[in-house]
Structures are given as structure tokens and as C-alpha cells.
Specification:
With 92 residues, this protein is an alpha+beta fold. The protein contains one helix and five strands, in the order αβββββ.
Length: 92
């Protein structure tokens, strides 16, 4: 998957040198979590999020979700060369 350079959030983040905002990546994680669970979920927390590298517009990435017991999940966002985001989420 990739984020289009025309995405509304990129205009101000950062002009002339756009980087995909973390909130856009976390939204993608939420959608991937819903797909993995098989229903719409409400994320109630992301207690362990760590941004490791920036993501550029049009840069390919994938999201790996690991479901755990009790409405918890781990996630990693990876490009073809490295992990750019890792964390955990709780959901209903």
C-alpha cells in the first residue's frame, strides 16, 4: 500500500519536503486491524507506539498485525527495507 502525494495531510506536513504524518499511518493500522479481526473495531488505546523512520509519499509499505488475547494486538509497519513503525493497540 502507499499514500498518494495528493493526500490532504501532506500539504502542510512539510511543504517542499512532504512526510506522511504519523496519524495517517495509525489510521491505516486501525483499518488493517479491523480487516484482520473481521469487523469494525474501536481502538481504545495505543500504549506502545514507536516511530522509527519517516514514510515518504508513494513509498510502498505493509502492515503486519499480530492478534493477542483480550482485545490486544501488536503491529509493525514495514517498507521493503526496514520497519518504520511498531506498537501495540487495545480495541473493542
Amino acid at each position: 500500500m502507499k499514500i498518494s502525494p495528493q493526500h490532504a495531510s501532506l500539504a502542510g506536513h512539510f511543504p517542499g519536503n512532504p512526510v506522511v504524518p504519523g496519524v495517517v499511518l495509525l489510521d491505516a493500522v486501525t483499518h488493517a486491524l479491523s480487516q484482520q479481526v473481521g469487523r469494525a473495531v474501536t481502538v481504545t488505546g495505543m500504549p506502545g507506539v514507536k516511530f522509527l523512520a519517516p514514510l515518504l509519499p508513494e513509498q510502498e509499505f505493509s502492515i503486519v498485525i499480530t492478534l493477542k488475547d483480550g482485545g490486544r494486538a501488536g503491529f509493525d509497519v514495514v517498507t521493503d527495507t526496514h520497519k518504520i513503525l511498531t506498537g501495540s493497540a487495545t480495541y473493542d
